[in-house]
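REQUEST
  id: r-88c1
  op: predict_structure
  target: Tumor protein D53 isoform X6
  payload:
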Amino acid sequence: MEAQAQGLLETEPLQGRDEDTVASADFSSMLSEEEKEELKAELVQLEDEITTLRQVLSAKERHLVEIKQKLGMNLMNELKQNFSKSWHDVQTSTAYKKTHETLSHAGQKATAAFSNVGTAISKKFGDMRSHSIGYSIRHSISMPAMRRK
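RESPONSE
  id: r-88c1
  status: 200
  body:
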C-alpha cells in the first residue's frame, strides 16, 4: 500500500504544461470566502517579501561592486585570475600530463632524427668538398704540366 502511495506522489517540480493545467483549473469554487481572504493576504505578503528580497539583493550587489573597486578588482583582473586558475587546473590534470609526456617524447625522437639527418648531410657535403678540393689540386697540378708540352 505504501509503495502505491509513493507512486502517486510526484517529486519533480511542475513543468510548463502542468502549470498551465493548474492555472486553468478553477479552485475558487472549492474555497470558502474566509480561505480566499487568507490566500489573498498571503499573496500580498509574499509579493512584498519578494520585492524586499530583490531590493536587498540589489543593494548587496552594489556593495559588492564598491568593495571590488576599492580593492582594485575589475572585470579584466577577474578574467585573468580565472584564466590563470583554469590554466593551472589544465596543467595539473592527468590528461594534460600524459599528453605533455607523449609530445615531449615525440619531440625528443624528432630532434634525434633531424640531428641524424643533419649529420648525414654534413658528412656528405664534407665528402663532396674534400673530393672537389682533391680534384681541384690534381687539376691545378696537371694543367701547368699540360701547358708545358
